[in-house]
Amino acid sequence: MSPLLQVEGLVKTFAVPAGLVGRRSVSAVAGVSLHLERAEVLGLVGESGSGKTTLGRCVLGMSPVDEGTITFDGTEVTALRGRRRAEFRRRVQPVFQDPYASLDPRWRVGRSIREALDAYRIGTAANRNQRVLELLDRVGLAPSYAERLPRQLSGGQRQRVGVAAALASGPDLIVADEPVSALDVSVQAQVLNLFADLQRDLGVAVLFIAHDLAVVEHLSQRVAVMYLGRIAEVGTTRDIFLNPSHPYTRALIAAIPHPDPEHRTDVVPLSGEIPSPLDPPTGCRFHPRCPLVTDTCHSVQPQLEPLTTSHRAACLVTAPSVPAQL
Amino acid sequence: MTGPVLTVQDLRVSFATPQGLVSAVDGVSLSVGAGEIVGLVGESGCGKSTLANALLGLLPSGAQVSGTALLDGGQLLGLEEGRLGRLRGDRISMVFQDPATSLDPTFSVGEQVAETIRAHRRVSRRDARAQAVRLLSEVGIPDAARRYGDAPHRFSGGMRQRIVIAAALANQPAVLIADEPTTALDVTIQAQILSLIAGLCRDQGTAVLLITHDLGVVAQICDQVGVMYAGQLVEEAPVHRLFADPQHPYTRALLGALPTGDTMPGGLTVIPGQVPDLSGPLPGCRFLDRCPQARDECPTRPEPVTVGETRVACWDVSARLVPERAPS
B95: which of A27, A84, A112, B178 fits an S-S bond (Cβ 3.0–4.6 Å)? Predict the structure, then answer.
């Protein structure tokens, strides 16, 4: 069976003003391929400016792509129009960092959730209110919450309403962009537990975009690491966290402040900062910060090369391409 | 070392609101020694930033503050603004989450560091400039002499935070209060900034009060840590003890809520209920309604007790201590 989501060679470029006259283009996503299986949580990590949010918006169909293809459940979706596009959007739903962005502040919670049911004509008009209560129950909120306004909810409750609204259309894939990064740790735990339940009970796949590696390690089956618009490494959560190959992944993992004072990292894992995507480095985009940099890295752009059947990295040093065997 | 540099005793802060008097900080005591990094950790609204602002005299005028806060033996609380202004940036400095709030966008970064020096020291412009360049270079601004005249917006968030740190440490303060200094930064930059703060402060013997929501940051650089909940300090311990043997039920729940690769998805500890409304009468333990260990005594306020090197305010912990004290 084909994967639920297959992204191939995705490029997304934005025009930005440059100086007083003229425009320059910046590639937020510069040739990304990845796939997501049914009922799988794929964590997408990277620092600010890595392009992970843009990639998520492209998958959601919120941002038209410049090059490449996005195939969802066997159908190429970037060119879909009309009813078939609406059906695709029903099956792929967003959850954002700030649920305020997706909830109308003047609408009661029940109405916000019902809106999705009405829009996609799910169930009969009569049983949609019942369905709203079921969805609230699904995310751990009592029926009385249907009557509340978003501002009467705590951050964690609002995010659960955001998840209920995303679930209303019965999606196969949720693209969640930093869904817990605005939440306190005790509230974050509730929302992370909820995502785990959705995957287990409803078989919903999740593209989980986050900068917090501990959160991603906890929730994901597979992880993709992005750097400056490209995938640096992808593999199972064990591959990435126990056996990272790319020097950037290694640095990122070493930089996690572990809540364990017995394991302190006294060395700074990575010097320098992510360069501007307006002027990306030649060759490997990580080479100006890389501790393993070689001459070749300045000129040759590495491709994702397989290390094992599940694990691939784009590094000329740690994952050199192996010539095809004769 | 002769005793702590900063000592806070029974600090209380409340605000008058239309809903009544909100008790944001309720009887917090702590101390920080020279070269020591003390973490103050808690979730949004627990009062940790209010406490920091009270020490710095940065609370809005309606705030009611009581208790003592001694810096080098002198009382900080209630000091008139002129005297406080002479201390701030000299004996006590601060670094906030957003460097944009600390840097003036219309002045060059070098001038801002040099001005901090000249505001408190009699040095020539030329010497102040030379010192500022040296400081900027020490905090890792590449090519500091050439970039002295650049405005803050020409620097990344991480670099701006380095500049704020250079200004904060320019006069070698006795105390640095850092309120979520790395929260807005990426994880690799956070590691750089934490290492910078810890390194400089240990070298200069600065006492650091680090306010954070991140237990990972606490574990990585703090010596001592206090846990705040709803305005109260519920537990205080050396960092190794807090993580190895947390005593307060809130501390334990907080540690259990941290996602790790070893916890099964769906298996994180959830704290039921919500933080109480701080405008209500709250005579007892403020964690009472959410606590799995709640007892009959909890509606009255627990006095802190000592368990090994840990100070903890919890009736359940006190009750377990009693049999050891009783003569057999």
Answer: B178
